[in-house]
Design brief:
heterodimer; A: mainly beta; Rieske Iron-sulfur Protein; six-stranded antiparallel beta sheet; 40% strand; B: 390 residues; FAD/NAD(P)-binding domain; Enolase-like, domain 1; 3 domains; five-stranded parallel beta sheet; 22% helix; binds FE2/S2 (inorganic) cluster; Reductase_C (chain B); oxidoreductase (chain B); FAD (chain B); flavoprotein (chain B)
């Protein structure tokens, strides 16, 4: 598991990029944490730079939206989903488990 | 019999309209008519990754794995030549017709060519996949490229050609490139990218003519300069494809005229994307928008109009981007002359900045170079007076 940051450092609506083998973006949606691949499947935008809208993030470059729970993409130009990763909160710290799909992910 | 909706045009706007019809629970037939033989593909990469050879045809197709669920009837390689508004039939070049209960006009625009062009080999425009393939082949053996027009397409082609190792000269009639969309000040800043990357930019001079027999050899400028060229790319804007509607009774201007919700002057016919000029209350006239995001998003409202379920007219914030010389340029909002451009982050010299355009002290548009995170926040909040700070 990779430690990300204290829960207090990631307020609702915000995202943080975690450097792993493949970078991961961790989001806070109204107190729930989600982790997906940080790199957009269209080009190389960092999804942590995107805009969080409900349970989706809009890519900062060309506006494809990815569901934070499932990784699914809503529409062009991206065509393929992003991977999801399990998030664990322990003693006020957020951790991600790279390679382990989030519960409920497709 | 189940109803039929004909979508004329199989690029982003047409495909988005077809998807929106299903999203909005339309269950009848959808016939998509496209004059190109190719299945829908994405145009922005044609001047960038696809031209450079780093993106494949598969990379740029717009089709998605679950598109089969859309149950679309494709008529590709088929040109629409007329619309009979009494029977609401789309007439096709082979003499057949598609009778429809509703029609979506999405025929896009085509690249403008040089007036008096002599049909020389080596002279290209860039709009379609076939254009891009032909240009790519020509660039592979060329040394000197002249790009006519320093707009976004011209700049992107110049940038790609530099990465391919060509000597590139860009010619622009206006004193400052991109002054229309970005204003003279910021247009000038973006144009500095050319010099940064070894492209020669000549401004304030027009093209007197092309030189060559059979194949282009040079470009003559109005100031008397002769620029030797193996390949010439003409990037001087686009013209809406509406001639086929001349006898249809649909009102035309600079594009198919529609109200703010996409309705044309004929009931049951809506228009979307680059071919449509929609009424804009804020401009007080019809405005034709050629942005990618517009072709993606606006069809949903037009389709709702067609289905009779339309709500209030959408008021999107226009957004476009350009990738050149490794720089990400993003612009959102509506700028006009007199707006004040203010750097709110970074610096122009560093090629990393965010500029807000202000009118009466309020931000009305925003331009970012290599600032996607901040840009996204400003774009989202353009409608409120106070944007986020980080
Ligand atoms: S890089 Fe994300 S949609 Fe293009």
């Amino acid at each position: 598991m990779i430690p990300v940051c204290p829960t207090t450092a990631l307020p609702p609506g915000e995202a943080i990029r975690v450097d792993a083998d493949e970078p991961i973006a961790v989001f806070n949606v109204d107190g729930d944490f989600y982790a997906i691949d940080d790199t957009c499947t269209h080009q190389d935008a960092s999804l942590a730079d995107g805009w969080v809208d409900g349970c989706a993030v809009e890519c900062p470059l060309h506006a494809s939206c990815f569901d934070l729970r499932t990784g699914k993409v809503s529409g062009p130009p991206a065509k393929t989903p992003v991977g999801t990763h399990r998030v664990v909160v322990q003693d006020g710290t957020i951790y991600v488990q790279p390679g382990t799909a989030a519960d409920g992910a497709a | 019999m189940s109803p039929t909706i004909a979508v004329v045009g199989a690029s982003l706007a047409g495909l988005s309209a077809a998807r929106a019809l299903r999203d909005q629970s339309y269950d009848g037939r959808i016939v998509v008519i496209g004059d190109e033989v190719h299945a829908p593909y994405d145009r922005p990469p044609l001047s960038k990754g696809f031209l450079a050879g780093t993106a494949s045809l598969e990379d740029i197709t717009l089709g998605a794995p679950d598109d089969a669920e859309l149950r679309l009837e494709w008529r590709l390689g088929t040109t629409a030549v007329g619309l009979d508004h009494r029977s609401r039939s789309v007439l096709l070049h082979d003499g057949s017709e598609v009778r429809a209960d509703g029609v979506v006009l999405a025929t896009g625009a085509r690249a403008r060519r040089l007036p008096g062009g002599k049909g020389l080999d080596g002279v290209h425009v860039l709009r379609s996949l076939d254009d891009a393939i032909a240009l790519r082949v020509d660039l592979a053996t060329a040394e000197r490229l002249v790009v006519i027009g320093a707009g976004f397409i011209g700049a992107e082609v110049a940038s790609t050609a530099r990465t391919l190792g060509l000597q590139v000269t860009v010619v622009e009639t206006q004193p400052v490139p991109l002054a229309g969309p970005l204003g003279p000040e910021m247009g000038g800043v973006c144009a500095e990218l050319h010099a940064d990357h070894g492209t020669r930019l000549l401004t304030g001079t027009g093209v007197a003519g092309l030189v060559g027999t059979g194949r282009v050899e040079a470009v003559d400028l109005t100031d008397g300069t002769r620029l030797p060229a193996d390949v010439v790319v003409v990037g001087i804007g686009a013209t809406p494809n509406t001639e086929w509607l001349a006898d249809s009774g649909v009102a035309l201007g600079n594009g198919v005229l529609t109200d703010a919700r996409g309705a044309t002057t004929i009931p049951g016919v809506v228009a979307v994307g680059d071919c449509a000029a929609a009424w804009s209350a804020s401009h007080g006239r019809h405005v034709r928008i050629e942005h990618w995001t517009h072709a993606l998003e606006q069809p949903a409202a037009a389709v709702a109009t067609l289905l009779g379920t339309g709500g209030p007219a959408p008021t999107p914030v226009p957004y476009f981007w350009s990738d050149q010389y490794g720089a990400r340029i993003q612009f959102a909002g509506s700028r006009r002359d007199g707006d004040v451009a203010r750097v709110v982050e970074g610096s122009c010299a560093d090629r990393s900045f965010l500029v807000a355009y202000e009118r009466d002290g309020h931000p009305v548009a925003v331009l970012g170079m290599n600032q996607p995170r901040l840009f996204t926040r400003w774009r989202r909040q353009l409608r409120s007076a106070v944007p986020a700070t980080s």
